[in-house]
Each structure stands twice: as structure tokens, then as C-alpha cells.
Amino acid sequence: MTETLVRETVAEPPNRAAPPRRKRREDPGRGWRLYLPLGLYLLFTLVPFYWMLVFAFRPTGSTALVPWPITFEHFDTVWNDLGFGLFFRNSLLIGVGTLGVVSVLALAGGYALARFRFRGQRLFLLALLCTQFIPGAMMLIPLFVIFKGAGLLNSLTGLVVADTAFQLPLALILMSGFVRNVPVELEEAAMVDGCTRLRAFFAITLPQLRPALVAVGSFAFIGAWNNFLFALMFASRQDKFTLPVGLSYALGEFNTDFGALAAGGVVAAVPVVLVFAVVQRFLVQGLSAGAVKG
Amino acid sequence: MRIRGALAVALSLGLVLTGCSDAGGGSAGGNATITFWDNNGGPGRTPIYEELIKRFEQKNPEIKVEYVGVPSASVQQKYDTAIAGGSTPDVGGVTTSYLANMIGQGALEPLDDRVDAGPLKGKLLPNLVETVRQTAPDNKMYSLPSSGNLDVIWFRKDWFDEAGLTPPTTWDELVDRATKLTDVGKNRYGYTIRGGAGSVFQLLTEAYAYSGVEKFFDGTTSTVKDPANAELIRKVAELYKKATPEADVNNNYTQMVAQFTGGSVAMMHHNLGSYSDVTKALGTDKVGAITLPVGPSGKKTVVPNPTDGFAVFKNSKNPDAAWKFAEFLVSQESNSYWNEKVGQIPSNTDVRSEPWIEENQPVKMALGVLEDPATKIVPAPVYLPEYSSITKTDSEPAYQKVLLGQLSPQEFLTGLADKLTTAQQEWEARK
């Protein structure tokens, strides 16, 4: 019996997994099988962007698939005739304003939610979550009336307030998760060494929350940057309109200026792409920290 | 520390830079500022209004006009929100498609007395005035009509010439031409069907042009299900995929126009609003327009498009200045300037004698139709609050089934007619 067992053991290859692993490494088709579908998917994703660029850079009336010679006539139209210069400035101010207010409030609120226990805390968190189910369009008329009473119509401040109100709940939920991820013992150690809670927060916790701030701030900026409904409804003066409103100008009742629409799309997309290009490292880090450990 | 600094900068930037709220409108020191909302703002129309506002302010230095271009797709929602919030403009561009809704909310001033007391008395195209009046339960004029629009068939003159064909004058000829001009190998189709958004309104204009039925309602019963209307829909549906691109089942007007201007279809049913798009893309020498062909009855029946105009809002703090501006926009000079630029039918009858009318074949032809005593105008019941939901939400998917052969034209029209009849009966009961 023992002999049989020994023989069987000897007859078995010492490591069954090793040869196939070598074989996989030598498989010449592996790259194709992986990268071909990925490449096709990438092409599929990029086609709308490609069309946007083609329409933006080729002359009116051209049906060429490659925009050559390149023309900037559509950019001239959107920037100078449609007023995208001003709309861009407005969108930027609203985006930065919302980013600033949301970041500060989310930081303070998120810290409080993570570090303190208070009556109704779970209910409050549930309420925050539930606000995400309410579409902005439903709140439009009540908000309009409130803003009118508060003198916030036709002002960029009003749009920052509206955008902040809609961005803040999610930002608070995310931020409280990020704060929970920072060990409370670090702060306690600082306080044992003589720091106040505020100083411990600024010296110890805040630097740890850098990825979180980038994540929350980016979402707030992009949310405000892309918001069409509030900008259209709360601003009734041309000089307070934003880029998404400007983009819809190119879609007329009877005619559509595809060149202007595409050029406007490029102008509107560039800051978002830049934001993601710069912060994506922090964003992934921040989101995964909040999602997995928070 | 750096984070703290960045936060402080961001917050202060946000609060300081955006803190530029200001009050609008009102009058100060005898000078009035009025707000004007353009219901179809964009690169094509905004510069025309800016020029007209400049001319108005030169003539009336005591009145300043603030222009706001509202994107056409959102204008109804913008007006509804402004009315609910009590923050409407002084003057606004409106079309008859949502005029009834605004009248129902009590937002607009009736303009009959002002028109009768001024230079526009007797100078407005009667068909357009009638279309505006029909939207109001009290038959008053709540909008000063400025432009008319008419459905036409745009066609490629060069393709017709190449094939030795003449433009169609009847629906059977249209079917014949569409079939002959189709060459799938060359990606050329004779016709394009609007099967997606906005399809049913367009289909009804075709059906009534074919059937010659002169009223939308017989009493309160909808005439939509008339067998002759069904016959036309069958003819159109039979063209689908044989003489039209297969994607037409989802076509909205943008896609239709893109197909036509892109050079893949020979004929397209749209309205005069496409004038600048089609002529810019193909040139005036390659494109022609004909009115919708007639059917076997030989009658010329026209379902008019929504009529554009200007409304004065009840909430206006300067109603006289607001009216003065609206009246200026429809004066001969302004109305001529505006309609020549956009290629639509001028509402001011004095513009008829302007030289540009003779040179603009589509507008001249459309004016001829509207002025012809033999033309029967069949206004669609856009005053019914349910009209839009019945013809769009309920009927557009049903029409797609007709195109795909899953529903018969007569069944489709019977369903549509029943809903319209119910809505009309409720409207009459509320009057």
C-alpha cells in the first residue's frame, strides 16, 4: 500500500502547474486575444470624440473623413459670435466656486459624521442618501421661487448655491468614508502630545485626506461645469449663461449648426479632460480608499 | 499647510468671483429697460435680432432692450418656470404650439386693441392671424404673428435633371420619382421618411394634403381616420426601405436634413425653416422646393406649421414700451429684414412688394399658397392641452410600428382619432 502510494506519488509530475504556465507565456496569440477586443472597445468609445473633432475642424459643407485642411471657423463662431468666451468664464467661476464651497463643507461635515456620534446620525446619513433620488427638475419651481425671494436669480452666486446644494450630499457621504479610513489613533497621539483637536486635524488628518479632497472636488467641479438645467432656468441674462446652455444654441428649431456644436463640445470637454488627466491618480486612490476601507 | 492654503483660495475665489448678482429690468429716470426672450436663440437668428434691437434703440433712445436667447428645445420649460415663479420677460417670442398653454396660465396680454389702434391694422396676413386666434378660447390675439412657415418638399434639381424627370405634382408621381431616383449601390435614395421625433405632425400634413379633407374635426369627431388619410400612409410606408434609407424609422428632422444635405436622398419633406441649411450645403442652383403634392381629389389643403410671433407679458412693468418693441419687430422694414434673412413667410402684407420675395422661390411659392383663395387651411388643434402628448408620446411609436409592418395604417389612425376626439370634447365642455 505504501509502495503503491510512493510509486503513484513519484509518477506524478512534481509540479503540474509549471509547464502550462510556461506554455501560456510562450503563446503568441495571447496578446492579440487580449488587446484586439480592448482595441475594438477603445475604438468604439473614441468614435463619438473622433466625429466631434472631424466636425469641429473641417469646413462647412465638407464630407471628408479627415479634417484637412483644418479650419478654425467654427471655433471663431462659438467663441466670438455665440459668446463662448463669456460662457467659459462663467462656467469656470461656477465650477471653481462649487468646488471650493463643497470641499470645505464636505470636509467639515464628513469629519463630524466620521468622528462624532450624535442622535439621529443614521437617519441623517439615510436622508443624505435619499436626496440622491430626487431629480433636479422636480425642485426647479420651488427653488426658482426661493431664489427669486433671496435675490439669487441671474447671478453666478445663485448657481454656486444651487450646485452646492445638489453636490453636497454625495460629497459628505464620500468624505465621511475617507475620514473613517484615517486611523483615529494618529489624531489621539497628537492630542496626547498637546495638540488641540483642530490643530491635530490640520496637522495630521488633512494631509491624509488629499486624495479624498481631489476626488470630492473633481466631482463637484465637473457636476457644476456640466449642469445645464439650473444654468438655463436661474439665469435669464445672456451674460450669466454657461457653456452647456451655449451648446444648446447650436441646436435650432429648424436648423443645426453641426460645426459650431462640435467646436463648442471641444471647448466644453477640454477642461474636464484636463481635470481628469491631472487628478486621475488621486481620484482612483481616493475612491478606492473610500470604497473598500471606508 | 499647502492644502489649507489651497482650500482657502478655492473658497474665496468661489465666493468673491461669483458674487456679482444684479437686479434686472425696471425703469429709471424716465428710461425704460425691457427684456426680450428670443424663443429660438442661436448663431442663425441672434445676430438678426441684435441688428433689429440696435435699430429700435436708435429710433427710441428712451427704451433699452435686453436680449436673451433661449435655446428652442428648452423654451417651453423656461417659460413655464418663469410664469410659475412670476419672473417673465416683457416681450417674448412664442409659437402657436405652446401659446394655448401660456394663455391658459393667464400670462399674456391680449393684443387686439393695440393692433387696431396702430399702423399694423389690416396689415397682417389673415391666415396667420386666424392661426393665432384659434389657439385662444376667447378667440383673441395673444401673439402678434411675425412669420409663417409652410411644409414643402425639398428636392435635388440636379438629380431630377440628370434623370430627365420633372418634380412631382401628385403623390403618385412622388412615389414614382422616389422609386426611379433610388440607387442603393450608389447610396442614393429617392425619399426620406421622418419616422422618429416629430413624425406624426409631419405625417398628418401629408395625409390631409392627399385626402383633401377640409376640417380636423367634424363637430367634435376627429377626421384623422378618414380612409383617404390611411391610403396616403400606406403609400408612404410602402416606400420605406424600397426608396428610403432603412434608418429612417428613427429619423428626426436633424437626421433627415443631414441625409439630404449630405447628398444621399433626392427628396425630403420638411418646412421652409430648412432653407438656410439646404442652400448653404448644396447651393441654390441644386435645390428646389415644391408644395406638398395633392391627392386624387385635386384640392389644395394645408395643415399650417406653428406660427411665430411676439407676446407681451402681463407682468411687464413697461407694457407700452414692450408693445412698441413688438410692433416695431412686425413693421414692414423689420419684418422684411427678418424674414428675408431666415427665409420664412412675412406676416406683414406690405412686405409682399419687396424685391427679395420675387427672388426667393420657396417663400414666393409659399406665399402664393397662403394667399390663394382656393387653398383650404386645416389648422391642427395645437390648442388642445393633450395635443402634444397624443401626437408625440402616444402616436410616434405606433407610427414606427406601421413602418415596420406591425400595425395597419387604418388601425393607427383610428387610435389617434379616438384620442383627439376625446380631447376635443373635453375642450368644448370646458369652454
Can you put this structure into words, describing what you see?
The complex is a heterodimer of chains A (294) and B (431). By secondary structure, chain A is mostly helical. Chain A is 76% helix and 0% strand. Chain A is built from 14 helices and no strands. Chain A has helices at residues 2-11, 18-26, 30-57, 73-81, 84-115, 121-131, 140-149, 156-181, 184-192, 197-208, 210-226, 229-234, 243-249, 258-293. The relative contact order of chain A is 0.13. Chain B is of the alpha/beta class. In chain B, 46% of the residues lie in helices and 15% in strands. In chain B, strands 1, 2, 3, 4, 5, 13 and 14 form a seven-stranded mixed beta sheet that branches. In chain B, helix 2 (46-59) links the parallel strand 2 (31-38) and strand 3 (63-69). Mean pLDDT of chain B is 89; it is low at 7-29. Classes of the chains: A mainly alpha (294), B alpha/beta (431). At the A-B interface, helix 5, helix 7, helix 8, helix 10 and helix 11 of A face helix 1, strand 3, helix 3, helix 11 and helix 12 of B.
By DSSP (H or I, 4+ residues per run), the number of helices of chain A equals: 14
- What is the helix content of chain B? 40-55%
Mean pLDDT of chain B: 89
* Cα distance spanning the termini of chain B: 71 Å
Largest interface: A-B, 57 and 61 residues
Tell me the structural class of chain B: alpha/beta
* Nearest-integer average pLDDT of chain A: 84
